[in-house]
Amino acid sequence: MEIETLEKAMHEFVRSKGWYDPDSPRQQTPRNLAISLVLEASEVLEHFQWGEVPADQDEFAGELADVMLYLLQLASISKIDLGQAVMDKLALNHHRTWDED
Q1: d(CA 90, CA 80)
Q2: What contacts 34, CB < 8 A, 6 or more positions away?
Q3: Where are the alpha helices (DSSP H) in 17-81?
Q4: Cα–Cα distance between 88 and 80 in angstroms, integer?
Q5: Among 74, 67, 76, which residue's Cα sits nearest to residue 29?
Q6: CATH of domain 3-100
Q7: Tens of pLDDT along 1-48?
Q8: Which residues contact 3 (CB under 8 A, 6 or more apart)?
């Protein structure tokens, strides 16, 4: 699935909840989205707290989806082409050697 398709669906969902409205109690600012992204990433980590494999694959998938949704939204409202950012980072990392850092 294309990132643009996911991004469009995410924006439609957020709009439908009224979270882009100026008077929304859940303002969709870069700061608030970055905080939410980290909180959701912590919930991913929670699945590994007592074992090497998540006990519930569906719940784990849901947490990964939450992380991706916040990441997509944060990139989008920050005017970052996430697909291009990933490709640029991969190109940069291609020339790195972690053993020498």
Answers
A1: 16
A2: 74
A3: 30-46, 57-77
A4: 12
A5: 74
A6: 1.10.287.1080
A7: 899 999 999 999 999 999 999 999 999 999 999 999 999 999 999 999
A8: 72, 82, 83
Backbone angles phi, psi at 47, to 5 degrees: -70, -15
Residue type, 31: R
The one-letter amino acid at 78:
S
C-alpha of 95 from chain center: 26
Q: Count CB neighbours of 10 within 10 A.
A: 17
Pair of tokens at residue 78? 């920050």
Task: Compute the distance between CA of residue 67 and CA of residue 35 in angstroms, rounded to an integer.
Answer: 11
Q: Nearest to residue 46, comparing CAs of 64, 34, 65, 72? A: 64
Instruction: Report pTM.
Output: 0.89
